[in-house]
């Protein structure tokens, strides 16, 4: 069993997953300073709740991404209700426009970008073109110079790989 209360283990986890967590938090929050805070808070929460981590339920990376996702949501909500300090206490128009749907979409987009890094490049390319950009498979096949069947199989295997990658970072579809 991994002992997250040991300094060596938490340091190793930070070295291994800190950069990916930072990228996720930075994209989600749109602020490097807040992203650094989010990553720090993620590891503090992980250390405090070390007894809750169960290796049998999933990898450490997934558990840390779940914690980070919750931290990002908490920070986003706090920014939404807290008045801005820079302009004398009034919320900026950008902060006022940020709703919970927007925050959820931001978090989902950041998770998708992070998960796509775990998909093979040829699969990622067709997923972006066919699924995200909603281009016809025959047009993508023509652009890539491959048969349509190849594009279809790359989409199939790419989606399967993407699902595994999302699960690895702690994302579920419920």
Task: Describe the 3D structure.
- The structure is a single chain.
- This protein has 174 residues and is an all-alpha fold.
- It has two domains: 1-112, Rna Polymerase Sigma Factor, Chain: A (Orthogonal Bundle); 118-174, Arc Repressor Mutant, subunit A, CATH 1.10.10.10.
- The protein is 72% helix and 0% strand.
- It is built from eight helices and no strands.
- α2 packs across α3 (60-81).
- The longest helix is centred in the N-terminal third of the chain and has 23 residues, at 7-29.
- The radius of gyration is 19 Å and the shape is globular.
- The relative contact order is 0.12.
- The model is unreliable at 85-91 (pLDDT under 50).
Provide a concise account of the structure shown:
This protein is 72% helix and 0% strand.
Tally of distinct domains: 2
CATH class of the largest domain: Mainly Alpha
Series of secondary-structure elements, N-terminal to C-terminal: HHHHHHHH
CATH topology name of the largest domain: Rna Polymerase Sigma Factor, Chain: A
Summarize the topology.
Blueprint: H1 7-29, H2 32-48, H3 60-81, H4 93-97, H5 100-116, H6 121-132, H7 137-144, H8 148-168
List keywords for this structure.
single chain; 174 residues; mainly alpha; Rna Polymerase Sigma Factor, Chain: A; 8 helices; 72% helix
């Amino acid at each position: 069993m991994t002992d997250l209360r040991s300094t060596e283990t938490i340091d190793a986890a930070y070295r291994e997953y800190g950069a990916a967590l930072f990228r996720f938090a930075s994209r989600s929050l749109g602020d490097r300073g807040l992203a650094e805070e989010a990553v720090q808070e993620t590891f503090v929460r992980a250390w405090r709740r070390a007894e809750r981590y169960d290796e049998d339920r999933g990898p450490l990376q997934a558990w840390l991404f779940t914690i980070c996702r919750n931290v990002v949501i908490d920070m986003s909500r706090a920014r939404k209700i807290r008045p801005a300090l820079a302009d004398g206490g009034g919320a900026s128009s950008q902060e006022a426009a940020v709703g919970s749907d927007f925050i959820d979409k931001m978090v989902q987009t950041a998770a998708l970008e992070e998960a796509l890094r775990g998909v093979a490049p040829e699969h990622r390319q067709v997923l972006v073109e066919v699924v995200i950009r909603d281009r016809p498979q025959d047009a993508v096949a023509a652009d890539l110079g491959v048969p349509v069947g190849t594009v279809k199989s790359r989409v199939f295997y790419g989606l399967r790989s993407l699902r595994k990658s999302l699960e690895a970072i702690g994302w579920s579809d419920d």
